Amino acid sequence: MWEKMVDTREERALLEILVASRTDEVFRQRIADKFALWNDAINETLIANYGFTGVDNQALEEIWTICRVFLRGLNTQSQFDPDDGMRKALVRRFARAFAAPMRQPQG
After folding, report:
1. 104 phi, psi to nearest 5 deg
2. How far apart are CA 87 and CA 3, in angstroms?
3. What residues have CB less than 8 Å from 59, skipping those under 6 apart?
């Protein structure tokens, strides 16, 4: 997920949009509904395809949101630590923290 979806030019552009929307109220209002719908669709897809044994949907949404927040934030870490290997190591460590209770993808 890190290399194919997050550590990409497109995701970094999305991060720029998110940062810009924090300081531009008109822009934030213009995109807020789209981001809320997008976030809901992401949660539904992740919950349908990946889950944790014995965890309800609310907890799954929280877990997947934590994952997305961490990965988005890791993109900003490159400003402080340009070592790509270190960011990949952090992704692996973070994934191990959530991997044990996770079930296999559906389908």
Report:
1. -70, 155
2. 11
3. 52
SS3 10: helix
What is the Cα gyration radius of the chain? 15
Backbone angles phi, psi at 102, to 5 degrees: -75, 140
Measured CA to CA, the distance from residue 28 to residue 66 in angstroms comes to 22
Residue 68 tokens read as: 């997305």
- Residues 20, 8, 1, 107: is their CA dihedral positive or negative? positive
φ and ψ of 27, to 5 deg: -60, -45
- The per-residue pLDDT for range 21-43, each reduced to its tens digit, is 999 999 999 999 998 998 899 98
Rounded Cα distance, 68 and 73, in Å = 8
pTM of the predicted model over 0.85: no
